Amino acid sequence: MVRASLGVNPWSVLYEGLEHHTSLSFGMISAAVGVVVLLLWIPLRQRPTFGTVANIVVLAYSSDLGLSLIPQHLGLRARTALLAGGVLLNGFSVAVYVGARFGPGPRDGLMTGASAATGRSIRLIRTLIEITVLAVGWVLGGSVGVGTVLYALTVGPITQFFIPRFAYRGRDESRASPTPRRRRP
């Protein structure tokens, strides 16, 4: 989405805004913000796991790697494809790794924890988080485009659509019948 130059996701808007005010790289800001977001887990009673830490490290390095490998100044078709693919694949990937139950990344743990605490849908909670982060990043000077708005409004619904399809069900859950059996009198 960064290379699409049509607007980055709201978290990237925040990272770009913070880049204007620090000497840290985009990936290092991502990692630092991830740690700060973990503090927001405390009132939600979320606990970091191996998957949480792995998400911070992998996202930081893969962001810098991806930006170094994907060329800048692509044509509009390629940029549109990068944007659409970025939004869809991000919602899909969140559903896959959250559904695997190895532990969500910081931002996704905030989403799942807030959803559990409020009883509200993943779709709504994720959308509210994205809009809030977008506003803060924009105020700090991050770039906003059509892709930013598209992402903020669609990643929550995309994630909610895919989560039930990729949620790990333990041994006991997978053996259970999808419909309860009636007891005979």
TrEMBL record:
The chain crosses the membrane at residues 20-42, 49-70, 82-103. The keyword Secreted does not apply. It comes from the Bacteria. Pfam families: DUF6198. Keywords: Membrane, Transmembrane, Transmembrane helix. PANTHER family: INTEGRAL MEMBRANE PROTEIN, INTEGRAL MEMBRANE PROTEIN-RELATED. This is YitT family protein. It comes from Streptomyces caeni.
